[in-house]
Structures are given as C-alpha cells and as structure tokens.
Amino acid sequence: MVTVRMAESDYERIQEKADEAGIKVSEYIRAVVLDAERFRDMVAEAEETAERIRHLFTSMSESKGD
C-alpha cells in the first residue's frame, strides 16, 4: 500500500478521470504511472536512435569531404 498526499482539487480531478474511464482511482493512478514509465522509456530509445542517425549523417558528410 502507498499513501500519497495531494490537494483535494487534484484528487477530485483524478477521481473524475477514473470515473470517465470506468475504473477505480487506484487503478487509474497505476495506469497513469506505468504509462508514464513506458513513455519515458520510449523517449530514451528515440533519443538514442536520433543520436545514431546524427552520427551516421556526420560520418557520411565527413566521407564526402575527402
């Protein structure tokens, strides 16, 4: 069990979102937290891919200069 302190207005907003989704507040919070973690992993992977692409283009442009 985990206890989280938050403003009443934040809890009400979360409760509304959970109600809209048809799930309990605890389920909603778990889903949001886990989705955020997956999103963070996807962003990290995209950044690594972008860095590899930048490196590839840098290597290609340096090769053309020779």
Give Rg in angstroms: 21 Å
Number of helical elements: 2
Unreliably modeled segments: none
Query: Approximately what portion of the residues adopt beta-strand conformation?
Result: under 5%
Tell me the helix content.
Answer: over 70%
Class from secondary-structure proportions: mainly alpha
Spatial separation of the terminal alpha carbons: 63 Å
Give the mean pLDDT: 92
Shape: rod-shaped
The sequence of SSEs as H and E is: HH
Counting DSSP E segments of at least 2 residues, the number of strands comes to: 0
Largest sheet, strands/sense/barrel: none
Characterization of the model:
With 66 residues, the protein is mainly α. It has a domain at 29-66. The chain contains 2 helices and no strands. α1 crosses α2. The model has no long low-confidence stretch (mean pLDDT 92).
Pick out its properties.
66 residues, mainly alpha
Strand-helix topology:
Layout: H1 8-21, H2 25-64
Helix pairs in contact: 1-2
Give a brief outline of the structure.
The chain has 66 residues and is mainly alpha-helical.
